[in-house]
Design brief:
Number of strands: 11
Largest sheet: 11 strands, mixed
Radius of gyration: 18 Å
Shape: globular
Strand content: 5-15%
Helix content: 40-55%
């Protein structure tokens, strides 16, 4: 596979890919836009360590100085964490501009999938995916993450879709685009901060070996799209649905009153939910990312066999 002229694969990641060692991609929007400093940097480095402990090589992905990075250094992660929201949140539509201008960008689920695929990385761990926003029937606010899952052959391990979204419509959209949604140890779509949403996923899968088998079959069938693994937040960190839903409703009301829309919506809502839950949602967010990293690394190890 010829590497893209704008792509830099770190020596460790390049060596692992050449040797057939499992690699797991990680996004960088969670660092710059998802958490405050210094928890963002601490969490990013801890996630990389969890991936190593579970038999894979981490590849944190970002755009630094107009270069697509598959594998960030600790200095890169510190830069992303300290600069925070001043760094562009980069979706598919932003990559060409950032590369042309030599600018930095924090990669979303969409752009992390794109760059991972360019580098030859098959498995990606994140917190939660974007989806169909509430009221999308009038606003048409639908995350590019869903389109990318339909077109890019990367397995995405997440804790479901963020519960600030319309989860029913998100599943319908994925079904329309032929994206398999697998519940890891569950038949129910987890709702990010909580284990339960009331919505059923396509299939339940109980082991990393089976996840790897299903994804391998998809690749061998030549399907162009990816696969979504919904891995529930561990029971001990799952939040009370009533508490989190009340906070979300209040955050949505405030967002509407402030005229927040487009790519600013999710960071605003997550910050408000954190504020309204006294920081409990941030603690839950960190733990679910750790849990997803573990499952992704073990699945990547099985896929590499």
């Amino acid at each position: 596979m010829a590497l893209n002229k704008y792509l830099d694969v770190s020596p460790e990641v390049a060596q692992a890919l050449a040797a057939g060692t499992p690699v797991v991609a990680l996004e960088s929007t969670i660092i710059s836009h998802g958490m405050p400093y210094p928890q963002n940097v601490e969490t990013a480095l801890a996630v990389e360590q969890i991936i190593r402990e579970n038999g894979a090589v981490p590849a944190t992905i970002a755009v630094i100085g107009g270069r697509l990075k598959a594998g960030c250094t600790q200095a890169d992660i510190e830069h992303l964490g300290k600069a925070g929201t001043s760094i562009a949140k980069a979706s598919r539509r932003d990559l060409a501009m950032l590369c042309a201008r030599g600018q930095d960008g924090a990669t979303t689920v969409t752009t992390t999938m794109i760059i991972a695929h360019m580098a030859g990385i098959r498995v990606f761990a994140t917190g939660g995916i974007g989806g169909v926003h509430r009221g999308a029937e009038t606003t048409m606010d639908i995350s590019a993450d869903l389109e990318e899952l339909a077109h890019t052959p990367v397995m995405v391990v997440c804790a479901g879709a963020k519960s600030i979204l319309d989860l029913g419509l998100t599943l319908e959209y994925l079904e329309t685009h032929g994206v398999p949604v697998l519940g890891f140890g569950t038949q129910e779509l987890p709702a990010f901060y909580t284990r339960h949403s009331g919505f059923q996923v396509d299939y339940r899968v109980d082991t990393p070996e089976e996840l790897a088998d299903v994804f391998r079959a998809s690749l061998e069938l030549g399907f162009p799209g990816g696969m979504l693994v919904a891995n529930p937040i561990p029971e001990e960190y799952s939040m009370d649905p009533n508490v989190i839903n009340a906070a979300i409703e209040e955050a949505l009301t405030q967002a509407k009153a402030a005229g927040i829309h487009g790519k600013e919506t999710t960071p605003f809502l997550l910050a408000k939910v954190k504020e309204l839950t006294g920081g409990d949602s941030l603690d839950s967010n960190i733990q679910l990312v750790f849990n997803n990293a573990k499952v992704a690394a073990r699945t990547a190890a099985c896929l590499a066999k």
